[in-house]
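Course exercise 7: structure representation. Students receive a sequence record and must write out the corresponding structure in token form. The form below is the worked example handed out in class, using Pectinesterase inhibitor domain-containing protein (195 residues). Read each field label carefully; the graders check that inputs and outputs are placed in the correct fields and that the protein name is recorded exactly as given.

STUDENT ID: A-19
EXERCISE PROTEIN: Pectinesterase inhibitor domain-containing protein
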Amino acid sequence: MASTLEGTSAPSACRRVLLFLLLLLCFLIDIPYNNIFCVEAAASNEDDAVEHVCRSHVDYNFCRAALGSDPGSRNADLNALGFISLRLVKENVTDTTLFIREELSRERDEGKKRALSQCLGAYRQAADDAEDARRALSNKNYQTMSIEALAVGGAAEGCDRAVGGFAGGGDPIRVMNRDLDRLSEIAWVIAVNLR
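STUDENT ANSWER:
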């Protein structure tokens, strides 16, 4: 005959007692509660950390492909994924800045030149914001990292608005803007999870 405790089976009651003792032990040795139960944030293998981040991202497939493009993501924890995501942001900003400069040097239409100049300014700011985010991550200042990651995405949106009247949805600059916006969101999701 199975023993019961307030309508629960003995194994269930034992699990509750063990959980209580584990929490008590953590309290006594000052281990934060979050460190025990944020299993996904403290993932032991690469797919757990990448999966955790990408499940919180607007574009799951883009997130998986972007983070998966770096072989280091296979063994990365959230902090390392933060550096990977910011490296991807920086690469996008650099490539897009070079593309905008080339387009600007070839463009004859004054309206398009103004729009491209606005984009160039936005991407210069995005480069500074990305560097500030990397510095914040290095200093474990995740709040600042999240703010700077959002600012990078704002630069992409500002450029997109500037060229929107001249470029179609498949225009290379607009595609680069969308990619930067999604990459900056990955960095933001990581920063939020690190806080």
